[in-house]
Amino acid sequence: MMSRNWQDPADYAFTQGLNGAQWAWEFLRRNPDYQREYAAFRSTWDELETAYGHPPHRDFTAWKQDPRAYAIADDGGGSDCRVDRDKVLIECHLGARWGFYKFPVDPSVDDPVGEGLLTWRPLPQGVELVGPEDQVWLGDDSSRVALGFDLSQSLRDQLEDARRLLAVLRRQRLKQGLMRPRTVTDCCEDWTLYLRLLDADAEGASPTRLGSHIGLDEKTLATADAEAFALLKGGYRLIAGLPGH
């Protein structure tokens, strides 16, 4: 795993040039669960290569018949590497589980995105069904809006009207300063802090040590710490496709 001095901001200067896909990797590679799963996968892969060889002389037929070479297929994806109806190759299964295509990447690799070793799977954005009394989803977030549709009428026409209305609302709220588009540039400073928090935690240091080191009050630190772990646990997939500016 990478070794960075969380007390030294210069160790994180590299983040200034990252795009969304590269940022997503920085959070995933720090996930202890991913680190453990990759280590287990790598151990199994090495055992398989010892038994059946390396390309181009690998015995692929024997490899695919070995139970260690596949996992039970689930809804996590990896259907592009099915062995049969309910089995998927372990390399695809692990990649799909964590949200990417291609061969699983060692957490110690600094830039698998730039090297072409990792490509993120598209993450469906989805929509929420907001009930008439549901204020939880809307909250006080000006970037969120709920629209009404009449399911007995033409959905095609309503969806086109909704698209135009949403575009107008977005422009208005941006102009009024009620919201801002989420971009890598907007988030870079916060995300860099989050990486330092995660690295401090991995080293066994209390978040308060970093807070006092860089002058963060307790409330701000607690919020940053929670957001850092949210990105670590799965939120990284939401930032993989963010625009740069």
Brief description of this entry?
The protein is mainly α and 245 residues long.
Short key terms for the protein model shown above:
5% strand; 3-stranded antiparallel sheet; 5 strands; 245 residues; mainly alpha
Describe this structure as you would to a colleague.
There is one protein chain. By secondary structure, the protein is mainly α. Among the domains are: 79 residues, no CATH class; 75 residues, no CATH class. It is 47% helix and 5% strand. It contains eight helices and five strands. A three-stranded antiparallel beta sheet has the order 1-3-2. Strands 4-5 form a two-stranded antiparallel sheet. A hairpin with a 2-residue loop joins strand 2 and strand 3. The longest helix is centred in the C-terminal third of the chain and has 22 residues. The protein starts with 19 loop residues before the first helix and ends in a 6-residue tail after the last helix. The model has no long low-confidence stretch (mean pLDDT 88).
- Class computed from helices, strands and strand pairing: mainly alpha
Runs in which pLDDT lies below 50 for 5 or more consecutive residues are none
Distance between the termini: 30 Å
Give the total of beta strands. Answer: 5
How helical, in percent, are the residues?
40-55%
Overall pLDDT score:
88
Arrangement of strands in the largest sheet: 1-3-2
Number of helices: 8
Write the layout of secondary structure elements.
Layout (H helix, E strand, L loop, with lengths): L19 H9 L3 H21 L7 H6 L4 E3 L9 E3 L2 E3 H9 L1 E2 L17 E2 L34 H21 L8 H19 L4 H8 L3 H22 L6
Antiparallel strand pairs: 1-3, 2-3, 4-5
Helix pairs in contact: 1-8, 2-4, 6-8
